[in-house]
Every structure is written in structure tokens, then in C-alpha cells.
Amino acid sequence: MKHWVKLLAGPIALGTLFFAVVVQGAQCQEEDANAKPAARTSLPPLDMTVDDTNLQSPDNLQPDMRPLTGVQNPTLGASESRHSYWVPGLQYGNLIQSQPFSQGQSSVWNSNNYLTGNMSLLNSWSHSQLSLNFSGGGNYSTDSSQSGDFFSQLGVTQTFTWKRWQLQFIDQFGYLPESQFGFGGSTNLGTPGVGGALGSQLPGLSANYLPNQSIFTSVGPRYTNSFATQATYELSPRGSITLAGSYGILRFIDLGNFNSDDVMANLGYNYSLTRRDTIGVSYRFGSYHYSGNPQAMGDHVINFAYGRKITGRLALQLFAGPEVTTFRVPIGSLTSRVTVSGGGSLTYGLYRGELSLNFNQGVTNGSGTLVGANTSQVTLVASRQLTRLWSGKVNFGFARNQSVANASSANSQNYNSWFAGFGLVRPVGRNANLSFGYTAYIQTSSLPTCVAGTCGTSYTQNQVSLGFQWHPQPQVIH
User: Fold this and answer.
1) Conformation bin of residue 321: beta by default, left when phi > 0, alpha when psi is -120 to 50
2) pLDDT digits (tens, 9 = 90+) for 373-391
3) For labeling, which of 82, 374, 428, 457 is most exposed (least CB within 10 Å)?
């Protein structure tokens, strides 16, 4: 009985908060009905207030000028803002889940509670722009074997633009109690900042430049950081060169996982066929090292790329080419191997919604479980405004990680990781919303994997997520 009281404490608290905010929101709407209309603001519309007038139109977006062969995925464009601003926020998330991966095939449900402080900042000058999204707080579990901990995520981009040059510094940091792959379900816990239009100025690094975490049984808290620098020079009105480098780390707090470092260097050429279509070619070198392990890998990739952008409607990127991987310690008689690398990203603006699809195929760090992996990973997020107050979201992810050690052997270890879920979001008042969702996490492996003393080839976790998020109106800097 005591366990169920703890398990339901989060939903009860969330329901009480929902009732209080609804009452307050009703009072505010009544006051607004008797007040004079407010002056229109040039700040981006709040994603929390669902109204046709707040839906982003291509006419209100700035085109995405990021290079095709760069380190970031393309976007539909950024919300135009005449002011620099910052906005704080609060968030509460309650994840009720069965069979935690850290406890093997345990059938006991538990509840993880997250209380987070958020902040997003956008500061623009004549030739530069700073974008920052931060979330940090603490989490508590009803499972007595898991102690309370803190978690944090940060994304920063500093961009300088001159007549022919663009220079960017990008950093992404995260300290989470579990894998980033599918973390948070339908809540905004997996994304730093306040979210919505106010936090969408930071597209982040593409999957090729982030330490991979797509194996769920790499359990325990971990922190990651990826720092990248990118310079783009315009050779002509149609052609440009992109030079980039990055350094990333993946560190686990608990023993039993592989800590890794990766260094990336990228050189690319972009050529605009039309105002919307671009082609390019790039060379990327990657180096993977593992703490306390003599193995290291060098990875050489040549990609041919195509991109198409229609502001507010479509952002497409496709790339493919040969990949040559070398091994410091020979694997059997092999010191290198040749495979195919590729991927793409698609963001499509739907009527009252958006579709985002990403795919990557190539060598990765191994997610803390393998010393190098050949990884195929796909993620899909679709969102749509269902009614005036309710919006829906569907998310899906799949990753296959196969050890590079015995890739051609029948005894090679490989992991298939899935997550699939849906969620509903409803605004409460002007600057708050509630979210409800369900996500299933499934992992299978070709050979038995032992977690918390339990060995098996498949693990399944069901998760129900409840979330509440609030922020005030943006605070204008200048």
C-alpha cells in the first residue's frame, strides 16, 4: 500500500496544480475581456497559447542559411524577432514506468519525478547572435534502490556573420540518469530551454557529431558534451566552402560501461543549383578512443549531398558515400574495412502541424556498451493541432547497433532498440501547458545481456508520462 501511495503522489500533485492553474486562467480571461486590447509585440508567438493567429507562417520566418555540408540539420527557418530577450521557466515531469532497464526484468512499477528550472535566451547584435537553452533540476524515484540525483542540459550557439564569412561556435552538454534516446516521452524533459517558438532558435548538432546513446542497457547516469566550431566562406553567389571540427565525450558514473572520446573534422563544398536546391560534397574524419581500452578507430567518410529548402514548408537533406574504418588493434586479421555511410533529414510543415524525420547509417562510438558499432538509426516526430485547445504528438525511434569487432560473424553482438509513443498537450492559461503520454521502450540482442544480475535477450519498459510547464512573458534585453 505504501508503494502505491508513493507512485500516485506525483499524479495527485499534478492534478492539484492543474486545478489551481485552470482557476487562475479563468480569472485572467475574465479580466482580459474587460480590458483594452494590448499592443502587438514583435516577439515570437508563445507556443503555449494555441490560436490560429499564433501559428507560424512562412512570412514570419527568416530563411535557414546553414550550409548543406555543415554540422547542423536544416530547419524550416527561425522566428523573426526585433528584440533580444530571455525567458525563465519551470517544469515538472512525472514518469511512471515498469521494468526499469537498470533492474533487469523486474515487474515493479516506479515513479520518477523531475523538477526543472528552464531558461532560453536570444541576444542579437548587428553581425552576431547568441542563442542559449538551459534546463536543470533534480529528480527523485519511488524506487528505494535509486537515490535522488540532479540532471542538466545546455545548448549554446554563438554565430558571427560578415559579408562572405560565417563563423559558429556550438556546444551541447547533458547530464541525464539514462539514455538520451527517447528520454522524457511526450514531455519536454528531453529538450533544454522553455521549448516552443521561444526555444527553437537552436537546431543543435546532427547525429554524426554527437556521442551515440541508442543502447538502453548502457545503464546509469552519464554526462556528454560536444563542442564544435564551423566556418563557412562564400566563394561566389552560388558556391561556398565549409570547414568544421568537433570534440565529444561520453562518461558514465557507474562501472561496467565504456567511456569514449570522439574527434571529428569536416571539409565540404556547397553549390546552389537554384534558390531552393543545393548540392555538395564533403570529407569527414572521425577518431574514436576508449578509456582503459587499447582499441581506437579512425573513420574516413566521403559524402555526396543534396538539399532542398522552402522556408516554413520543407527542409530536406540527403547524403551518402563510402566509409573506410581503420583499427589500431587488428580485429582478427583485419586492420580496416569498407562500408557505406549515409543518411538524411526531412522537416515538413503540415497544415496545423509538422513532421520531422532523421536517418543516419555509419560507424559510432558504441553507446557505452560496444567498442565501436555500425549503427543504423531513425527517429520520427509528428505533431498536429487537433482542436483549438488540444494538440497531439507521435514519436518513434529505432536503432540497430552491431559490434565492429565481429561484424561478419554469426557470434557478433548486436542490439535493436525501439521506442514508440504518443502524447497530448493542452494549454492552461496564457503561459502554461499540460502534457499526457505513453511510450514503450523495447530492446532485443543477438546474445544474452546481463543487467542487475538478470540475463536475457529482450527487455521491455512501459512508461506513462505526465508533465506541466510554465514560463512568464519574455523579458526584453534591447
Assistant:
1) left
2) 999 999 999 999 999 999 9
3) 82
How many domains does the chain divide into?
1
User: What are the φ/ψ torsions at residue 426 (nearest 5 degrees)?
Assistant: -135, 130
| 332-358 pLDDT, tens digit each | 888 999 999 999 999 999 889 999 999
Strand extents, DSSP E, 291-431: 293-310, 314-331, 334-350, 353-364, 373-385, 391-403, 414-428
Q: What is the CATH number of the domain that holds 253?
A: 2.40.160
pTM score, whole prediction = 0.86
**pLDDT above 90: percentage of residues in the chain:** 66
Contact 417, 451 (CB under 8 A): no
Question: Which among 452, 442, 453 is positioned nearest to 214, based on CA atoms?
Answer: 442
Within a 10 A sphere around the Cβ of 459, how many other Cβ atoms?
21
Are 188 and 433 within 8 A, CB to CB?
A: no
Q: Which residues are within 8 A (CB) of 301 and not within 5 positions of it... i.e. 6 or more apart?
A: 283, 284, 285, 286, 321, 322, 323, 324, 341, 362
